[in-house]
Design brief:
The protein has 67 residues and is mainly α. Helices cover 82% and strands 0% of the residues. The chain has three helices and no strands.
């Protein structure tokens, strides 16, 4: 009986492990998207002069957010 219980637990944790990895991957994707959004918004609020001071122009904002 103990061996059967151990097998059942092992296969259950494999399924939960896969689902857990999928959920973590989705959360990581949302977090990356949000970081990109926050960065773009912060850079968009800067003046052209401030952007020039840090070596950027308005056209660079989208590409900086993706890095």
């Amino acid at each position: 009986m103990a061996a059967l219980f151990m097998q059942s637990t092992r296969s259950g944790s494999v399924v939960f492990g896969h689902i857990g990895r999928v959920i973590v991957s989705m959360i990581d994707g949302v977090a990356a998207w949000n970081d990109n959004r926050v960065t773009r918004n912060a850079l968009s609020r800067l003046t052209d002069r401030e952007l020039e001071d840090i070596g950027l122009c308005r056209g660079d904002i989208d590409s900086v957010g993706r890095r």
